[in-house]
Design a protein that fits this description.
Strand order of the largest sheet: 6-5-9-3-2-12-15-14
Largest sheet: 8 strands, mixed
Structural class: alpha+beta
Distance between the termini: 37 Å
Oligomer: single chain
Shape: globular
Radius of gyration: 28 Å
Number of strands: 31
Helix content: 40-55%
């Protein structure tokens, strides 16, 4: 019966129409109060939902409740059983007269058969939920849209031995035991919320408890719930939560509002985490950490994600989205908030570098391809496909630009106004921008184009100097490339932080300026310039744009040594490297001297933070180099990059060994300074190996064996995995057997091999897909191997098309289990237009095979068909 209902509820993809932003209509019925009773069982859970419904318009429309995959057992209206209801597509339709009723439905669902991991599902013996974006309809019938806010009361009944812990949103109300070995618990959430924020967890869990006292003196009980053996690994996450709660009070004035705040970690999860009101559910990789199993990156990511989901309590929960087109209202704003938190916990400069690198790796290619869409999309077939870097990362950059334009005091006043005015409502991006305007007095009419226009603006910047009159002239021109459905673009508002430096003295020639480029072209004049100026532009990456300047290699090298803005200093080095690598890729004749000198100067500057040095001396990725070319040549890019790495390794051999040995010994400490030393040590090891040094594998293996932490161990393993030494095979074998049974660490084992630069990586990955520990049923494992391989530009784009066939095979198989995760892994195939005709034909063939697959989900169909179109 469940399969039959699924077949009815899932229309064929080709017949599925797009949902348009302009078709939004307020809900015909509201649900002020919801009571849910769960009789929990992994094979057959019964859910009784009692909804207090009130008519919201004069249309006379019947009540329409969304559903998918459940077996309806009963429908009652005002306490009386009725047969006057029908199923239309994915909706239960109940004709109702009058303006208010009590609607009760009873359904049965099978959590253990729910491989999509949406709704109520089983993960390692735990029953848990994931309802964003449209998962609640897989639990019970409900108007499953974000603008229907309801107060939830929940009662759970379950086997007491199997599920001793019962958690839900809000605060606990009561609990008790039954005579048949079962027990019950009731929870109540007093704050109205949309159905996508509903959460429930039942399992045999242990807890790490904490307590936080709010700025008003209220005591909040904190709990992180995991399997008993993992409690010790939750200390970092609990500390991060406490830091985030204090930070949000200090920076945004936001105080937590319930008596408890719980987090549960599960192994099978489509996302990083979910911000359900009072009961966050996390992918275990973003909770569990100790030095032996988690890298510094993992520790940083845990703190960032814990903070992100907590910050959603206000930017997403207390104020939610009117409709899914407004998704960046909560996600972009909250990413901006978690970036600010992370920057305050360590090096703000390094954090900004990391954020921009992530934006360029994921969002810039998205903006330049067939899947480009505005921060506020205009239409979708499957909303899950719009949880993208554009919504999250570019959305955060929009908030950052408004904060830059308004200044810190006005921005804080604007966020205070927003939180106060829209508390308890479902708002829009326009509501947020209007608060920015009202609090600051700034007109942001043109700025709104950032929400409606897709594409990454390109800014041409040219600085000329008239030595005779002490004047320099900066000419700026912007252009936004065409994107699907948007061939012609209007000029955007670009806040560009600019400063000029003297080429002879190295001094700044005047203060930094904030230039608002809001026309197609503009000219800025600098007076009192008595020496040749060098331009520092888009400092701090103040606007998410691509800068095209006429700065020479000498100018970039100068800025990499003298710019007083850390990001601009890093950016100058990266641009110097990028220009060199692009020229080598195209012309085949390397000229590496300027890069080698600049890197040497950076390594020699002992005043710099080791973490910054490590970021500055890393070469741009092969993917980012390809983004600069009209046609991507994976082999030529690989040869150019490896050639420069080898040249840097050979010419600066002594410096790399000095940087490697400079890292202090001692037990693992998670601190900004210690992280910086470990990061630089791994980068130095990579360059020692790139030089071809005879002892490189020996050094790496010695680090691997002696390491007291995963950061150093995986850094060594990653270096060895790129080579062909006996030490490589030994290290991979030792690593696997040491951590067998620890799924999060074995994910690293798969990922490290999938990212290898070896010539035979494609074959090795195909073999790993047949490994007994590989499964597509776990999203983390699928991402670790299949997702990482798709990001390996050279291996994935093998000329024989084997990489494309492999990905298509995996996606077709994964789509049958988990369409949402499958759709997220498809974008590498979408870039076929960027490659030569032979590769393009093979990629198109893979996409066409995916689209032609019978029973393909809406999720994958939308991504693949758009990629072909």
């Amino acid at each position: 019966m469940l399969d039959a209902l699924n077949a009815i509820a899932q229309p064929a993809p080709a017949a599925t129409g797009a949902i348009s932003r302009h078709d939004y209509r307020p809900p015909a019925w509201l649900v002020p109060e919801t009571r849910l009773v769960f009789d929990l069982d992994p094979a057959a859970t019964r859910v009784t939902a009692t909804l207090s419904v009130t008519r919201n318009d004069a249309s006379g429309d019947p009540l329409r409740l969304d559903g998918a995959g459940q077996r309806p057992l009963a429908v009652r209206v005002d306490g009386v059983a009725t047969d006057d209801w029908r199923i239309e597509g994915e909706q239960l339709v109940v004709p109702l007269a009058g303006d208010a009723h009590m609607i009760e439905t009873e359904v049965e669902i099978a959590p253990e058969r729910n491989t999509q991991l949406m709704g109520l599902y089983a993960s390692g013996g735990i029953l848990c939920t994931q309802c964003e974006a449209e998962g609640f309809r897989r639990i019970t019938y409900f108007p499953d849209r974000p603008d229907v806010l309801s107060r939830y009361a929940v009662r759970m009944v379950a086997d007491a031995a199997r599920y001793p812990v019962l958690l839900a949103n809000g605060d606990p109300v009561a609990a008790g035991k039954l005579d048949d070995g079962r027990h019950w618990a009731e929870w109540n959430d007093p704050f109205p919320k949309p159905s996508y924020l509903f959460a429930l967890v039942a399992g045999d869990l242990a807890v790490n408890r904490g307590q936080f006292t709010t700025q008003s003196g209220r005591s909040v009980d904190l709990g992180i719930w995991v399997r008993a053996g993992d409690v010790e690994k939750t200390r970092h996450a609990l500390h991060a939560l406490e830091l985030a709660m204090a930070w949000d009070e200090r920076v945004y004035g936001r105080e937590y509002d319930l008596d408890v705040f719980n987090i549960v970690a599960v192994d099978d999860f489509n996302f990083g985490a979910m911000e359900n009101k009072g009961l966050n559910i996390f992918n275990s990789r973003y909770i569990l950490a100790d030095p032996d199993t988690a890298t510094d990156y993992d520790y940083d990511a845990i703190a960032a994600v814990v903070a992100h989901e907590y910050f959603h309590n206000w930017s997403g929960n207390r104020i939610t989205c009117r409709d899914w087109f407004q998704l960046s209202l909560k996600e972009g704003f909250t990413v901006y908030r978690d970036q600010g938190f992370s920057a305050d916990q360590g090096s703000a400069a390094v954090k900004r570098i990391e954020d921009v690198r992530g934006l360029r790796a994921a969002q810039f290619p998205e903006d330049a391809g067939p899947l480009a869409h505005p921060v506020r999309p205009e239409s979708y077939i499957e909303i899950g496909n719009f949880y993208t870097a554009t919504i999250y990362n570019k959305g955060a950059e929009l908030i950052r630009m408004m904060a830059t334009i308004l200044g810190p005091q006005a921005f804080r006043a604007a966020t205070d106004l927003y939180f106060t005015r829209f508390d308890g409502t479902a708002a829009t991006c326009e509501d947020f921008v209007a608060c920015m305007e009202e609090a600051s007095g700034r007109d942001l009419t043109q700025f709104r184009l950032w929400y409606s226009q897709a594409g990454t603006p390109r800014v041409a910047a040219s600085l000329s100097h008239q030595a005779g009159d002490g004047r320099a002239t900066l000419r700026l021109a912007q252009h936004v490339p065409a994107t699907p459905g948007q061939p012609d673009k209007q000029p955007m508002v670009l806040p560009l932080r600019i400063r000029v430096f003297g080429a002879e003295t190295g001094r700044a020639l005047g203060d930094e300026q904030l230039v608002l480029l809001d026309e197609a072209a503009s000219t800025i004049v600098f007076d009192g310039i008595t020496e040749r100026p060098v331009l520092s532009v888009n400092r701090g990456f103040s606007a998410p744009v691509i800068i095209e300047s006429d700065r020479s290699a000498a100018d970039l090298a100068f800025l990499s040594a003298h710019d007083d803005d850390p990001f601009a200093r890093y950016e100058a080095m990266q641009q110097l490297m990028l220009d060199t690598l692009v020229a080598t890729t195209i012309e085949g004749r390397p000229d590496n001297d300027a890069v080698i000198t600049a890197v040497a100067n950076t390594l020699d500057d002992r005043t710099l933070d080791p973490a910054f040095v490590a970021e500055a001396v890393l070469l741009p990725s092969e993917g980012f180099i390809g983004d600069q070319l009209a046609m991507v040549d994976p082999e030529a890019i690989f040869r150019a990059r490896e050639g420069l790495r080898r040249a840097l390794g050979l010419r600066l051999a002594d410096r790399w060994r000095d940087a490697y040995e400079r890292a202090p010994d001692g037990p693992y400490v998670y601190s900004p300074a210690a992280k910086g030393h470990r990061r630089l040590r791994s980068v130095a090891l990579g360059y020692i190996a790139a030089s071809g040094a005879d002892d490189a594998a020996t050094i790496a293996f010695r680090q691997f064996e002696r390491a007291d932490n995963m950061t150093d161990r995986q850094g060594a393993l990653g270096t060895l995995a790129n080579g062909y030494s006996d030490e490589r095979e030994a290290a991979l074998d030792i690593f696997y057997h040491r951590y067998a049974g620890n799924s999060l660490v074995i994910d690293k084992w798969f990922q490290t091999q999938a990212l290898s630069s070896r010539d035979d990586t494609g074959r090795l990955v195909a073999d790993l897909a047949r490994h007994p520990d590989f499964t597509l049923a776990n999203p983390n494992r699928a991402r670790a191997l299949v997702g990482a391989f798709g990001a390996n530009q050279r291996a994935f784009n093998a000329a024989d098309g084997s990489g494309y066939r492999f990905l298509a095979d995996q996606l077709i198989a994964l789509d049958k289990l988990n369409p949402q995760t499958a759709a997220k892994l498809l974008p590498p195939l979408a870039r076929w237009r960027r490659f030569d005709s032979d590769r393009a034909a093979l990629m198109r063939g893979a996409l066409e095979r995916i689209v032609a697959t019978p029973g393909l989900s809406k999720d994958v169909f939308e991504q693949a068909s758009k990629s072909l179109g």
